[in-house]
Amino acid sequence: MNPVYQRRRRLNRFVMVLCLSAALFGIAWLLMILVSLLIEGLPALSPSVFFERTRMSDGGLGNAILGSLVMTALATAGGSIVGIAAGTWLAEYGGRSHLANTIRFINDVLLSAPSIIIGLYIYAIIVLPMGHFSGWAGAASLMVLIIPVVIRSTEDMLLLVPGTLREAASALGAHRWWVVIRVCYTGARAGIITGILLGCARISGETAPLLFTALNSNQWVFNLNSEMPNLPMVLYQNMTINSFIPAKVELAWTGALILTAAVLILNILARVISARKG
Amino acid sequence: MTSSRNVSARQQQDLLGANEREQSALRRNGVIDKLFEKGTLTLALAVLVLLATIMGSLVAAGWPAFQELGWSFFTGDRWAANIERFGALPAIYGTLVTSLIAIIIAVPVSLGIAIFLTEMCPVALRRPLGTMVELLAGVPSIIYGMWGVEVLSPFLRDHFPALFPAGTGLTTAGLILAIMIIPFITAITRDVMVTVPPMMRESAYGLGCTTWEVVRNVIFPSVRGGIVGGVILGLGRALGETMAVTFVIGNSLFLNPTLTGQGTSIAALIANQFPEADGLQRSALLLLGLVLFVITFIVLAIARLMLRRIENRAP
Predict the structure, then answer these.
(1) Distance, in angstroms, between A135 CA and closest chain B CA?
(2) Residue B147: closest CA among chain A residues belongs to which residue?
(3) Which of A25, A96, A263, A278 has its CA 20 to 30 A from that of A157?
(4) Where are the transmembrane segments (chain A) (predicted)?
C-alpha cells in the first residue's frame, strides 16, 4: 500500500484510540463516583433516615430534607414567575433591540456566576439588615440562581413557536396578551416545564449559597424566619466539623445518595417531558 | 365612499359590528396588553437590577476593607485574621492554579469523549451515552467534594506519598475540578459538533478523508468558536466552584508557590471563614468575593461572546 495512505491510517487509528481511551477514562471516573455513592450510602439507608431529625450524635435527615424541599419549592415558584415573565418579554417584545440584547448577555453571565457570590450578595442585602440567618434568605439566594435558567429556557422555547401561529391568532382578532398566553405558552409548555425542572435540579444541590443565608439547624423548623435545616449543609457540616464522628460521615453519604438520586430523577423527568413533546 | 365617510360615530359602530359592550372589551384588552408588556418588561429589567445590586452590595461591603488595607490587599502573601493581615494573593493564586490544572486535564479528555460520541460510537449507543454525560453534568458539586476527600485524597496519599504527602492540595483540588467539568465541557462540545451539517462531513469522507482528518480539517475549523466558548465556560465554573474544592485544597493561608502543596482558593476561603467573620475580616472577605466576581464575569463574558458569534453564524 502507498506509504502516504499507511501513515494517514496509522495516525487516524492512533488518534481514535486516544479518543476511545479518553472516553473510557472519563466515564470510569464518573462511574467510580456513582459506585462509591452506592457503596457508602446504601448501608445506612433506612426509613428512619427520612423521618428522624438530625441530632448531635445520632438521628436521621428528616428535618434537613423537609427544609430543603420547602426552600427549593419557594425558590422554584418565585423564580418561575419572574423567569417566565422576563423570558416572555425577551422573546415576544424585546426582539433584537439593544436593551433586549443587553439583558440576554447579562442573563447568560448570571447563568454561570459562582453560587457563593450569590450567597454573599443575599447575606449583604437580607441577612445583615435582618440581623439573623433565615429560611427566607436561603430561598431568596436559590431564587436568584434559578431565575437565569428559567429566563433562558423560556425565551428559547417561545422562539421555537412558529410565527405563523401568532399571526393566525392575531388575524382572528386575538389581542397580543391573549396570543402569548393561550397560543405561545401552550405551544412552549413542555419546554418551559423542562427548563424549570432543570433549574430546580440545579438549585436543590447548591450548598455554597446556603452557607451564610439559611445556615443549618438540628430541629424541625416550620418558621422561615429562623435558621433552616437543609440537606446540602448537613452534608457539608458532617464532612467537615463533624467528620471525626463515623456515624455522621456515614449519614452524610446516605444524604449524598438521596440528594444525587433526587437531582437525577428531576433531570430524567425533565428529559422525559421534553422528549414526549418532540 | 363619500357616504360612508359621513356617517355618524354611532353608525360607524354598527358598520363595524361593535356595540358598546364590545367597545369596552376592546378598551379593556388594550389596557391588559399594555400592562402585560410593561409587567414582563419590568421583570426583565430585574436582571439588570440584579447584576447592579450584586456589584453594588459587594463594592459597598468591601469598601471599608479596601480603605483600611489599600493595595496591600492584593499583594499580601498571607491571610491571618488573628493579626488582621489580609493578603489575597494565596487565594487568588490557588483559584487560578486549580482552575488551570482542571482545564489542562479536562479539555483533552472532553474533546476525546466528544469526538468519540459524535464520530466513532455506534449509533445505538450515542443517545444513551450522551444523556449519561448530560446527567452527570448535573450532579451537585458537593458530591464531588465528598468523593474527593473520602476516596481520591486517601488514594493519592497512599500511592503517591512523594507528591501528595497529605493527599490534599492544589493538584488534588484541580483533579476534582477536572472530573467535575469534564461532563460539562463534553456536553457543550458535543452539542456544537453535531451542528456541523452532515453534508460537509460526508463530502469530506467522500474525498477519502480519515475520521481524524474530517474532525481536524472540517469539524474543528467550523465550530472552533463554540468549542473555545464551552471550554471557557468550564473555566468559569472551575474558578467559582466552592464545594468541590473546599474539602481537598488543604486550606493553607500562606502563599505556597508550588503545584502540589496545600493552598486555598477564593471560594474556599470565603466558605471557611465567612460564617464566623466580623468587622474588618468580613469586609475583606466580601472584597475577595468582589474580586472573584469580577474575574469570573470577565471570563464568562468572553465565553458568551464567542458562543454567541457561532450561534449567529449558524443559519
Answers:
(1) 16
(2) A33
(3) A263
(4) 14-39, 65-93, 105-127, 133-151, 251-273
Q: Distance from A65 to chain B by nearest Cα, in Å?
A: 15
Range in B119-128, B276-285, B304-313 with the lowest mean pLDDT:
B304-313
Inform me whether the pLDDT recorded for B167 exceeds 90: no
Residue B174 contacts residue B95 (beta carbons within 8 Å): no
Distance from CA of A260 to the nearest CA of B (A): 6
CATH number of the domain where residue A126 is located: 1.10.3720.10
Closest partner CB to A15 (pick from B57, B150, B212): B212
Put simply, whether B248 touches A (Cβ < 8 Å) is no
Cβ distance of A176 and B293 shorter than 8 Å? no
User: Residues 291-310, chain B: which have Cβ within 8 Å of A?
Assistant: 292-293, 296-297, 300-301, 304, 308
Domain count, chain A: 1
- The 3-state DSSP composition of chain B as helix, strand, coil percent (nearest 5) reads 80, 5, 20
- So what's the pLDDT on residue A54? 87
pLDDT in tens, A7-19: 999 999 999 999 9
Asked, for residue A184, whether it belongs to a domain, the answer is no
Residue holding cell 418561575?
Answer: A80
Which chain B residue lies closest to A256 (C-alpha atoms)? B143
Cell, residue A108: 447568560
* B 117-146 residues with CB < 8 A to A: 117, 119-121, 129, 131-132, 134-136, 138-146
Amino acid letter, B45: L
Q: Is residue A27 part of a domain?
A: no
Taken in order A118, A119, A123, A124, is the CA torsion positive or negative?
negative
Domains of chain B by residue range: 2-69, 72-313
- The residue range of the domain holding A88 is 63-165+191-277
Three cell numbers at A194? 423542562
A247 within some domain:
yes
Question: What does the pLDDT average to over B286-304?
Answer: 92
CA-CA distances (angstroms) from residue A270 to A7, A133, A150, A197?
A: 47, 32, 13, 6
Q: How big is the A-B interface in CB pairs under 8 Å?
A: 252
Contacts B246 to A, Cβ<8 Å: 240
Q: Is residue A110 a part of any domain in this protein?
A: yes
Contacts of B193 (CB under 8 A, 6+ apart): B114, B115, B118, B219, B223, B227
Q: Note the pLDDT tens digit of each residue in B143-160.
A: 999 999 999 999 999 998
CB atoms within 10 A of CB A215: 22
A30–B243 C-beta distance less than 8 A: no
> In this predicted model, what pLDDT tens digit does every residue of A246-267 receive, in sequence order?
889 999 999 999 999 999 999 9
What is the residue-level pLDDT of chain A in tens, covering all 278 positions?
788 899 999 999 999 999 999 989 888 888 899 899 999 999 988 888 898 888 877 788 999 999 999 999 999 999 999 999 999 999 999 988 999 999 999 999 999 899 999 999 999 999 999 999 999 999 999 999 999 999 999 999 999 999 999 999 999 989 999 999 999 999 999 999 999 999 999 999 999 999 989 988 888 988 889 999 999 999 999 998 888 888 899 999 999 999 999 999 999 999 998 887 65
Q: Which candidate from B111, B237, B286 shows the least CB-CB separation from A124? A: B286
CATH of B72-313 given 3.40.50.720, 2.160.10.10, 1.10.3720.10, 1.20.120.230 = 1.10.3720.10
